[in-house]
Structures are given as structure tokens and as C-alpha cells.
Amino acid sequence: MNIYIINLATAHERAAFQEKQFLKLGLNFETVNAVTVADVSESYYQRVAFDWERPLSRAEVSCYLSHQSLWQRVIDENQPALILEDDAYVCDDLPQLLNEMSEMSVNYINLETRSRKKVVSKNIEREICGYTLRRLYYGGTGAAAYLLWPEGARRLLAMERNSGFALADAQICRTRMGGALQVDCAVAIQLDCCDRYQMASPHQTQSTLANTRYQQKMIGPSKIYFKLRRLRSQLALGVINLKVIFGRVQRREIMPKVSRFSVH
């Protein structure tokens, strides 16, 4: 299975951390240069920044484009891939899990948790190497660690054509993947979540998207436009909440197996 790590060219310490982490795991990976704000022209930014429920910042558009390029690559190479951001901290069991999951016929598997509750099935779809796979109905935030198959990538790009840009994790979350799965316990977290799960962080870092929200005076659609988009999303989430109320699925935080994270 191909492994791609999105890395800003200036984030040398993060790149060094990933090299150390994957050397210990015995896995080969390819570093993919992240799209930067300097790569996004003003005209292009203005064309895509207002597609979602609120205006996207230039950094958020750049992050989306970094993921988008890999979605297209998964299609072009017709191979599933593990896509990681450069602050993803993965567990020691990842090689065995990838070996098993690479043979599966699915579209998308989420590997991470990020301090938010997810909506997952009560029933277990499959057990692998001491982990369970559950149907994922709502994933919340985070796009730092996921497996993507060509059909899943095609669905993501179809969503973009129909609904435009969004935060990368929001685009994944709102795309109907046709049986998306969540690994339970989580096998990846972002480094800034280590304290949350009482884990020693192997590398100190902060989210590159922190405090990057669109701050300028709005140019483009009116506020009502964004409110209507937000309402549509809330209605879709309401349908999922009904499934929780009637006991068909569960809403809970997916916890990591702390003892299996040991890169220092």
C-alpha cells in the first residue's frame, strides 16, 4: 500500500519526526510537498473560498488542495493509499494493520481520533490484529490519517464538483463513501492531542491551521448564504442523530490504545 505524508517544505522538524517514526515501523513512505498559501493565486482563492458553510482561509484552501492532489493520485495509480499529515503520530501496530487492510474491498477507513465524539455502528464489521472496524456515520474533525481507495477518491472529487471546496475533513465527512469504516481503538492521533490522551508527545508542535480562519471583510456571498449551507448540514446531521436516539448507532469518542504508541 502506498503511504503519502503531506509536509510543508519549511516544516523540517516534522519531516524528521516522520522519518524516525516510519524507520522504526519498517515502512516506506513518500513525502509530498504541501500546497502553500503562496501557491494559491488571489483569483483562484476568491473562486473557491466561499463554497462551504463559512469562508475558508487561504491556509485552509491550501490544506484542501494538498489532500485533493492525493485523491487524484489514488485514482490515477488505481491503488489504495494511506494519507497522513505530517503531525500524525501512529501506533506500533500500523504495519500489521496495513497488511490486512490492503486486501479489503472498501472505500475509506478513518484511523484517527481527535478529541471529538464520532457516530459509529454498535455492531463490529470486522476484527483485525486486536482492533475492531465499525461503520462510520459521522467522523467529525481531523484528516490526519486515513486510508483511501480509488472509488472513495472518485466520490470525494464528485462531491467537490457538486458542492465545491470545504475543509478537507469536512469534505470527507459529508461525502457518502458507501460504508466508511472507523478503526477502534484509534491507531493515529495528531501530536497536539497527546496531552488529551495522557500520552508523552514525541515531538512538540501546534496545528498549522490554528488561528487561520478568514478574518478579512467578506467579499462574495452574503451571510445568509452561509447560514443556509449550515442549516442543510445540520439537517443531514439530524438524520444521523435520530439513528442515535433510536439506538441503531452510538455516539462516543474513539480512544487510542496508548500502550501501543512508543516512538520517542
Description:
- The structure is a single chain.
- This protein is α/β, with parallel strands linked by helices and 264 residues long.
- The chain has one domain (2-260): Spore Coat Polysaccharide Biosynthesis Protein SpsA, Chain A, CATH 3.90.550.
- 35% of the residues lie in helices and 22% in strands.
- The protein has helices spanning 12-25, 42-48, 58-77, 94-101, 150-163, 168-174, 223-245; strands at 2-7, 30-33, 81-85, 88-90, 108-110, 117-128, 131-138, 145-148, 181-184, 188-190, 249-253.
- The strands form 2 sheets. Strands 2-1-3-8-5-9-7-6-11 form a 9-stranded mixed sheet, with helices on both faces.
- It is globular, with a radius of gyration of 18 Å.
- It starts with a strand and ends in an 11-residue tail after the last strand.
Topology at a glance:
Elements: E1 2-7, H1 12-25, E2 30-33, H2 42-48, H3 58-77, E3 81-85, E4 88-90, H4 94-101, E5 108-110, E6 117-128, E7 131-138, E8 145-148, H5 150-163, H6 168-174, E9 181-184, E10 188-190, H7 223-245, E11 249-253
Parallel strand pairs: 1-2, 1-3, 5-9
Antiparallel strand pairs: 3-8, 4-10, 5-8, 6-7, 6-11, 7-9
Helix pairs in contact: 3-5
